Every structure is written in C-alpha cells, then in structure tokens.
Amino acid sequence: MLDPGKGLASWPMGSDHSPPRSLVKEEMMMSDTNEDRETRIRERAYTLWEEDGRPEGRADEYWARARRIIESEDEPRAPDMVADPPL
Known about the structure:
mainly alpha, 0% strand
C-alpha cells in the first residue's frame, strides 16, 4: 500500500506490479515543485544574507526568513475588497 506521506518511496520493493503512471507523474511533479521551492528559498536566503553584510553563523536564521517569505508569496490570497455588483 502507498503511504501518502512518503509517495512512491513507500511502493513495495520487489512488487510484481509497477506503480500506476499517474502516481509516477504526480510524484515527479511534486519533486520538481519541491526542488524549485528549495532553490527559491536558497536564493532568497543568500540575497538576505548579502544585504545584511554577510554575517557569520546565522545561516539558519536566513533560511527561516527566506522560507517564510517564499511561503507567503506562494499562499493564495483572498481579495482585499470585493467589488459591489453593478446596479
């Protein structure tokens, strides 16, 4: 049985059947998305670090700040105001 938290990594080894193509494609898309997101976080953390004068020993702080920024950029936003329908 496929563990939703582990994706294809939980597909039984030595199984006589291959995982369905839809699962393989979904796993690949999720992997690409995660890699893209990690790259964005890394690049943002580096930019923040450079802007602050490249201080030593604070990598975790910059990573966390960058992750929060990227997460906020990726969140779907609700409209601030809903326009009144035309009369």
